[in-house]
Amino acid sequence: MPIEPRIGHTDLKVVRGRSQMPFELSLPPHLKRARWRVKIREKETREPPHVTILRRTQAWRLNLRTGEFMDSEPDPRDVSPEVLDHVTAEHNWRRLCDEWDKKYPNNTVDGTRDSEGT
Known about the structure:
By secondary structure, this protein is an alpha+beta fold. 23% of the residues lie in helices and 19% in strands. It has helices spanning 29-33, 81-88, 90-103, and strands at residues 14-15, 18-19, 23-24, 36-40, 50-55, 58-63.
C-alpha cells in the first residue's frame, strides 16, 4: 500500500486554483523587528478589497479602493507612519491591488469582475 505524503501546516494548499495562504507584503527589517506585518488575508470575498496591517494583536484594515481605514478601532493614528508610507508607495500599492485581484477575481479593486463572476 503506497504511503501518501502528509500535508503539514506550512504546505501551500490550493482550492479551485486559488491559494489558501495569505499574501504578505515584504517590509524593511526594522519594521519586521518591530512586529509589523501587512497581509491580504483569506476568506475576504464579501469584504471591500483591503489590506490588513497587523502589529501584535491589533489589526487595521486599509481599503484598497479608497486608501482609507475601514474601522475607527483600533485607532488608525496608531499605525506607524513609516509602515503606512511603505504600504502606500506606488509599487507596493499596485502589488497589493494585483495580489487582491488574483486572490479574489470576483471582487476586484477596480470593481470589475472576471467572466466567471458575471
